[in-house]
Design brief:
With 468 residues, the chain is α/β, with parallel strands linked by helices. 39% of the residues lie in helices and 13% in strands. The protein is built from 18 helices and 13 strands. It has helices at 2-11, 55-60, 63-84, 110-115, 121-138, 159-168, 186-194, 208-211, 224-234, 254-263, 279-283, 288-309, 316-326, 377-381, 384-390, 406-409, 414-421, 431-446, and strands spanning 27-30, 36-41, 46-51, 90-93, 147-150, 174-179, 198-202, 240-246, 268-273, 314-315, 346-349, 354-356, 370-371. The strands form two sheets. It has a ten-stranded mixed sheet with strand order 10-9-8-7-6-5-4-11-12-13. Strands 1-2-3 form a three-stranded antiparallel sheet, with helices on both faces. The two termini are 27 Å apart.
């Protein structure tokens, strides 16, 4: 790797030459902006915006090549660390297989959600001890505590064990809960706040008719009214977040949904495209074109609301794409990079103690790496099912290997790709959607509006490398 880096630097020569076939290659991207195009060096995610009328001059002046030559090694090292140098520090922990809902797009098989088992307290305590000891041995000293996110199915179906775990292991882990909120009571919320537990709630619409199209209980009844009451109870909590899953049934309502969320006083939310790992998700998928058009319209509306009220509603998954451009190593989510975070930054534990690279794989037995109660965690993380996921790189995927934005997208999601293609070397389910997001993000940067879409103080721990 050292030789390759030196070779690329040498290929830049005097710093005046680009795109010769033996040096740094800039790809020019039409942003659909009236003034600017983007020039991107894909290997390092280096980019610059260039006025269309001065493109030839900019590329021939030597300034861009000089910046690349000066900073190529540092940018390459940072990208290498981001992609291959991280170790797991978080666990998506399923304390039960059961769920009181039967959402049509769920990635957990229906039989498990209906008749699955709860993890006993003895099993949960044993699992937490294994995880504690592993992270103590592998995470660098001085870093934040490892994170346990109680995930689903529905974790509050096993509320007693979950809350006991939070109470007894508060000094060992940072905890989070992702819930459908139908079992969340005021007393539960007080406990969550008192222990600084991150809380995520799922809500897919601004009205009962929209939100309940996919999210229903086993009797076929929707949950909108109960969930909205929970959101109103939790909305001022700094560690609270709402997740909206976008399907063909609510995609055309996204503008109204973000207006509704903003009206509820939310500061953060995720507006995630439905995952297409299992048939229910694939059947609910909107087209890339419609998803992009309505999602960007919703982003535009958040900016208008910010100007009108002075209050942001940050769409976290888009903010992560934007961060991946302006500050690649500051990104908060690890789905939009390859290899993704599955098995590399986090992993998932089922209610039986089975370990998977990510929750998306829990319905795919092929990707079970071992059992937390029977196999050593280092061996699980090094197992073949994990290696298949952690070795998935855009460089090995067609057409991603030729794509200028490959490190802003990452060709997610590997579980979707495997189900769609029978191989990890296939692109994700929302290729055009990611492409449109990156173009939109760069238009925002060109217009100086990017901060309106990011969390306040997002750049507190960042350092500017150079300005071009």
């Amino acid at each position: 790797m050292e030789t390759m880096l030196e070779s690329k630097e040498a290929a830049a020569g005097s710093g005046r030459f680009l795109n010769t076939g033996d040096g740094n290659c800039l790809q020019i991207i039409d942003l659909r902006h009236p003034v600017y195009v983007a020039a991107i060096e894909p290997d390092t995610a280096f980019w610059t915006l260039i006025e269309k009328g001065h493109l030839a001059q900019a590329l021939s002046s030597g300034e861009i090549a000089g910046k690349l030559k000066k900073h190529f090694r540092k940018m390459s090292e940072e990208m290498e660390t981001l992609r291959f140098g991280l170790t797991p520090s978080a666990v998506y922990f399923n304390p039960t297989e059961q769920c009181n809902l039967n959402c049509t797009y769920c990635y957990i098989p229906e039989a498990r959600r209906l008749n699955g088992r709860h993890m006993t307290w003895a099993q949960m305590e044993k699992a937490l001890r294994v995880l504690r000891d592993h992270f103590a041995a592998t995470m660098p000293r001085g870093t934040r505590k490892p994170q346990i996110v109680f995930h689903g199915s529905e974790p509050l179906m096993n509320k007693g064990a979950v809350f006991r775990a939070i109470e007894e292991y508060a000094g060992e882990f940072d905890f989070g809960i992702q819930t459908n909120a139908t079992l969340l009571e005021q007393e539960d919320f007080r406990f969550i706040v008192s222990h600084n537990v991150a809380l995520g709630v799922s809500l897919d619409g601004h009205t009962r008719a929209v939100a309940d199209r996919h999210r229903k209980n086993w009797a076929g009844n929707g949950t909108f009214r109960k969930v909205v009451k929970a959101v109103e109870m939790c909305r001022d909590y700094p560690l609270f977040n709402v997740i909206c899953t976008v399907t063909s049934q609510n995609v055309r309502s996204l503008v109204r949904i973000v207006e509704f969320f903003h009206g509820l006083g939310l500061q953060n939310c995720l507006v995630n495209q439905v995952r297409c790992t299992l048939e229910g998700g694939r059947a609910a998928k909107p087209s890339d074109r419609e998803m992009a058009r309505m999602f960007i319209a919703a982003l535009d509306r958040t900016f208008e609301l910010y100007r009108e009220t002075g209050r942001k509603l940050v769409i976290g998954n888009f903010a992560n794409i934007l961060l991946g451009i302006v500050a690649p190593t500051a990104r908060r989510l690890m789905c939009d990079i390859s290899p993704c975070g599955g098995g590399r930054c986090f992993f998932a534990v089922s209610a039986e103690g089975d370990v998977y690279p990510c929750s998306e794989f829990i319905g795919l037995p092929r990707f079970k790496g071992g059992n937390l109660f029977e196999d050593g965690l280092p061996a699980i993380l090094a197992s073949e099912p994990f290696k298949v996921v952690t070795s998935r790189k855009v460089e090995n995927i067609t057409p991603c290997s030729r794509c200028a934005i490959r490190h802003f997208c990452g060709a997610p999601c590997p579980a979707e790709a495997y189900q769609a293609h029978g191989s990890m070397e296939g692109r994700g389910a929302f290729c055009e959607f990611y492409e449109d997001q990156v173009r939109y993000a760069m238009r925002l940067i060109a217009d100086g509006r990017e901060s309106a879409y990011l969390w306040d103080n997002w750049d507190r721990d960042t350092k500017e490398m150079f300005r071009l």
